[in-house]
Design a protein that fits this description.
seven-stranded mixed beta sheet; CD80_C2-set; 1 helix; single chain; Immunoglobulin-like; elongated; mainly beta; six-stranded mixed beta sheet
Length: 583
């Protein structure tokens, strides 16, 4: 008996590859003479190889993209640039001397799709729609195999439900052989859907498994009727006073373009801008109940809401009495009242300073300082800016009182003019008289001024008189003569002349010393006159002025006085060593 070893062909059930990439198909076998690879269906050979020879069959779609290698027990067919149409069954045929065996595998091609898109409906959807309304569409393009689309609402997948949810799917095969999928969602909406988020999930196949991606989230606008209406004061916040501008707003809890809002105050319809009513310069007459009515223009159903408005008021302050005359020494009493819808606070002011609280003003023992203008201020502490004012004018009756100035005694130069002032208080208004040495000058009023020309010492009297008495003030003016002021002497600059004089004196002394030395030398040589005799001093003097030079030394020789003409002078007045020049 002849024993023949068993042999076989083994291949994977499926080979996966991305579109445009490379696919490797392995065929494992034992004892072969040659290997041929064919496609299923028409079973057309595309490649042949053995240990000494290999080639690609001509005229197939793989001719230029296929290559094969063989090693003991394994043959590998490589397809480059994989196409979609390459997704077929491949057969590995192993031939022996007596028979042949085959192995089969399927090439699967993949291409990931583009990022999916979602588009929601732009118009609102009414809850009153009878049939499901379109929510939006999702689309994913150019995938292989065909991608799948699933709709979600708030992370919950949506499944078709009769009369509630409809999902329509359409698939397009592009010229490239890739798939594009479009899905449309329709749904019957309720009020609760107004805040829901919708999106799509796309799943697609890749070598070795599946992948998933999601679109952006979208919202829809849901129209639903109101079941309640709210009205409120938008501004001002807090309590309202007369003069304010009041803004009322109205809003229903529904959402529908077919609703209409209107305002009423009592039976009066008020003009408004849809959901807003503005009352300018409000008064107490604007207090009351305000009604806001929401009307559905489709069904003509009406729903109303209301609010109560109260406008606080503060009437003008009333001061009693407005004007008053108070005798000196008596008490002043006045009241200030203002009608108000809320509690008030009253204060009295004089010259900007608060002098009393409460609506009654009492001033004891009136003086001229009591006279003036009083202001009553009434405020509402609860409401900022709510106040009113009243005025009281007070005159204090009494004899004149002159307010003495700081100085009534003054010194003034003759032939000048001085202004004198006399300020008087009193009621009725005093009559002011000025008395001077030149006569009488009269001036009416509580403050009088007079100009006085000063010629000598003078006394001026200011007299103030009214029905209740008199007051006087004396001004003493002492006249002085103006002092004669000599014009200032011009200063002569001596700096330069002083230097010249000193230089001249030094030069003169030097010249005299030289002259004396020369004369002495001539005298010693006997060139001038005899040394033993004295000349007559009675000789007639020259018409010219003589300069006498007297010289004396410590020698025992006789001192000689010489004139300019060489005459000897008598030595009567000689003394110690000195040089005297006389002209």
């Amino acid at each position: 008996r002849v024993w023949t070893p068993k042999w076989f062909v083994n291949m994977e059930d499926r080979v996966e590859a991305y579109l445009g990439e490379e696919a490797r198909i392995n065929c494992m076998f034992t004892s072969a003479e040659g290997v041929g690879v064919t496609r299923s269906g028409e079973k057309k050979q595309i490649y042949y190889l053995e240990s000494t020879m290999k080639y690609a069959d001509r005229g197939t779609q793989f001719t230029d993209r296929v290559n094969g290698t063989i090693s003991p027990g394994t043959a590998v067919l490589t397809i480059s640039d994989v196409h979609i149409e390459d997704e077929v069954e491949f057969i590995c045929h192993i031939k022996s001397l007596t028979e042949g065996r085959e192995g089969r595998t399927k090439l699967t091609v993949f291409d990931a799709p583009a990022f999916p898109s979602i588009e929601g409906i732009q118009t609102g959807i009414s809850v009153n729609e009878v049939n499901p309304s379109k929510i939006g569409t999702c689309e994913v393009k150019n995938g292989f195999p065909k991608p799948n689309i699933t709709w979600y609402r708030n992370n919950t997948p949506l499944r078709p439900a009769q009369d509630e949810v409809e999902i329509t799917l359409s698939v397009t095969v592009e010229s490239s052989g890739l798939f594009s999928v479009r899905s449309e969602l329709r749904m019957k909406v309720t009020k609760e859907d107004k805040d829901d988020q919708f999106y799509c999930e796309v799943t697609y196949f890749v070598p070795g498994g599946t992948r998933m991606t999601e679109t952006n989230r979208i919202n829809i606008t849901v129209y639903y009727p109101s079941t309640a209406v709210s009205v409120w004061v938008e501004s001002p916040k807090g309590k309202i006073k007369e003069g304010d501008s009041i803004m009322l707003q109205c809003r229903g809890n529904g959402n529908t373009p077919s609703s209409f809002l209107s305002f009423k105050h009592g039976e009066e319809e008020l003009p408004s801008e849809q959901d807003t009513l503005v009352l300018h310069n409000a008064t107490r007459l604007d207090s009351g109940v305000y009604l806001c009515i929401s009307t559905d223009t489709d069904t003509f159903e009406e729903i109303a809401g209301n609010t109560t408005l109260f406008v606080h008021y503060l009437d003008p302050a009333v001061v009693i009495p407005e004007d008053t005359i108070v005798p000196q020494g008596q008490d002043l009493k006045a009241t200030c009242n203002a009608l108000s819808s809320v509690d008030t606070h009253t204060a009295w002011f004089k010259d900007g300073e608060e002098i009393s609280k409460g609506n009654t003003l009492i001033v004891k023992d009136a003086t001229f300082d009591t006279a003036g203008t009083y202001e009553c201020v009434v405020t509402v502490p609860e409401i900022e800016g709510m106040e009113t004012r009243g005025t009281l004018y007070v005159n204090v009756q009494g004899q004149p009182e002159i307010i003495k100035p700081d100085n009534t005694e003054m010194v003034q130069q003759v032939e000048t003019t001085v202004s004198l002032h006399c300020k008087v208080r009193g009621f009725p208004a005093p009559r002011v008289e000025w008395t001077t040495a030149d006569g009488k000058v009269t001036d009416e009023g509580v403050q009088s001024t007079v100009d006085v020309k000063v010629t000598s010492d003078i006394t001026v009297f200011c007299n103030a008189t009214n029905d209740f008495g008199t007051d006087a003030l004396t001004f003493d003016i002492k006249a002085i003569k103006p002092k004669t002021v000599n014009p200032p002497k011009k200063k002569v600059k001596k700096e330069s002349s002083g230097g010249v004089i000193i230089a001249v004196i030094i030069i003169c002394i030097l010249l005299l010393a030289i002259l004396g030395s020369v004369l002495y030398f001539l005298y010693k040589k006997g060139k001038i006159c005899g040394r033993s005799g004295k000349q007559d001093l009675t000789k007639e003097k020259s018409n010219k002025d003589n300069i006498v030079v007297e010289m004396k030394s410590d020698n025992t020789e006789e001192a000689v006085l010489l004139g300019v003409n060489g005459e000897k002078q008598p030595p009567n007045d000689q003394g110690g060593d000195y040089l005297d020049v006389q002209k």
